[in-house]
Amino acid sequence: MKKRMKLHTPFFLSLTLIAVCSILVLSVAIFFWYRSLTIQNVNKANESVLLNTANVYRNYKDVAQNYTMDFYANPNIHALMMSGDTDWSDQLYSALSQIKGALIVNPYLENAYIFGTEEPVAMFENLPLSLDSKQELFRKIQESRIVESPFLWTAQRNDGSDIPLIAVFYNDRAFANSAYYGGVAITINPAELQKNLFVQQGEDSTHYRILDEHGNLLMHSPGISEIDPEMAQRIIQTEASAEHSFVFKGNDEAKLITYVHSEKDGLWFVSETSYTDSVRDISNARNLMMLLCLALTLVAIAIAFWISRRMYQPIDRIFGSIVHLSGSPDSPQSRDYRIVNRELESIGERMAQLRKENDDSAVLHWLLAPRDADGSGTPQRLAELEGSYCVCVLSAEKDCDEMLALIKLTFEEWANLRIFRPHRHTAVLIVSELTPGCLDDPEDFQKRWNQVEHSADAAGIRYTLGVSGLTGLAEQLKDRYDEACDCRRHVKFRKQQSIIFAEGLLPLHAGPIPESHMEPIRTAVRKRDEASINQAVGQLLSVTCEYRAEASTAFLASLASELSRIGAKKAEHWDLDLLDLYPLIDRIGNHAELREWLDHHCRVASDRLDRIDGLQTRSLAAEAVRYIAEHYNDPELSLNALAEKLSISSAYLSRLIADGTGSNFPELVNLHRLEQAQRLLIGELELDIREIAEQVGYNSSTYFTTQFKKRYGVTPSKWRIHHVLEHKEP
């Protein structure tokens, strides 16, 4: 029983293993998918809170900004800034009362300063600052443009301690070279502002922070104070395209960090949630999933056992019959599938060998067997026949019956025919003298075969026929049979010829075909020209018909193997073996089929070269576009210089760029230059038009202005002024 279960046991174990692994993989995939979905939902909720916090922060900042604008627009305060005269008046008292009222109503607004042209002229301080800090603030307001409000600033109190403040101001300096006529500044205390921004709700485990652009903690929700420096650096070094969340493992438990960057404010809004709390739902479902997996595993094992038992019974009987049929000495004792597989292979090899031996022996037996003169009836030894005979080997595409009928009709009153058909599509004939000397006239003999050929062509019969030479010796029958087979194999190399005579093979070359005859095919394939390939294939086949079938077949097999390697990648390399190609070519029946086969190999090799050229073309176009994007600011950049660098012609490079981008070379270069010029016009206000033109690669500022206006409709100067004024509105 133990030996009989050799197949059942691994079969059962295989089914069980497949089922269990499938269940585990599915469970793990569901677990990680649900966990990812849970974390994603938590991130979305935190991100929504952070965006709302950022909006609230901007609202508080805008309130302070509006105060500075209103105070600056007050004529009494403006007169105070211009003159520095602090003489008492009802109007001045009313204006200053407004400032003090704003500080009282908004506790997060600490101090208010009115700056003249030379020094501070008035101030209201809930948080007194040192004289140096006031002078520093005055200089910052004096040197800053209105678009730079607000800014973060570390001030010093009267007691010498530092405190971070947010300075909101307003002045008339719209440009870097604008004159300064005084200003109004209000400082925001982040420690007071955070009380308005963050309100902790009960047992909420999520904490919030606001960081400056250097990762320093500016504001935070209740219950936390410092931030891990590593966490802060990881946040501020994040690329813009990266995900705005990560799991941070510090000294304590893991935390889910979500953050939003306000580029306009230069601040990072960060939330911190316990990782355990963020995946609490999936953690609660983990035990249920484990029980479900265990139950499914038990069910899978039971089903695998039932299937393996039901399938094993008929398989066991089949294997037993195979092993018994093989006659192996192990057959009474074993059902091991390896032994069965080995016995099946052995049986297949023996059957193939026996089939071949049977066909060969049948032909030889028929050739040498005694027969009557008409091929039937009372046996008669061939050696006893007088006169000459020849052997013919016939192969037909469909059936030999029609062709044999034509041969009988042509030769029945003139020669004796003996026919043997080992297969439906194959026949072997012995054509012998019906009367002494009737085969001695070669012209008459050739004429009758020509009649057969014309009749077969008229009937549309596709066939090949090899005819041996005449002999009168019975012992040469086997040699004449081999000769006829060689003639039939050579038919495929002759165009529009289906019958080959042994006499026609005598002038053929018996040596190998020189390899130089492959060169026209190689050249035509590399040119990828259909006409050249057709011409080269025709020339090559005209050469092969001048050599023996063995040499021509070996030559074409070598050529096909080489074509299979042209342009093939290592991963898809299907280098054909000569031992596989030789019998494949040998089985080809006619010239048209041989030409189609060779054309196919040439086209496949040509298509692979086309594919490689396409990849190289796309690679060159991408390299050219990348080079232009990196070197657009080079005044010497030109189509000829880039073509020379890529080792291609300028016309070919121009076509590659046009096909790949839809723009010609000058248009693409101008596009990169003008886009960079736009960035410099709004980001580098201290640069004039001439300097910007030089930085983006133009030798002439006039030409730069012309190209800019042609593309954007306005000159660079007007475009800069319009953009600055548009973005300076509060």
From TrEMBL:
Keyword field: DNA-binding, Membrane, Transcription, Transcription regulation, Transmembrane, Transmembrane helix
InterPro entries cross-referenced by the UniProt entry: Homeodomain-like_sf, HTH_AraC, HTH_AraC-typ_CS, Tscrpt_reg_AraC-type_HTH
Domain HTH araC/xylS-type per the UniProt entry, residue ranges: 622-722
PROSITE patterns for this protein: HTH_ARAC_FAMILY_1 (PS00041), HTH_ARAC_FAMILY_2 (PS01124)
Xref: Gene3D superfamilies: 6.10.340.10, Homeodomain-like
Transmembrane segments: 12-34, 288-307
This protein's name: HTH araC/xylS-type domain-containing protein
One protein family per Pfam: HTH_18
Keyword Transcription attributed: yes
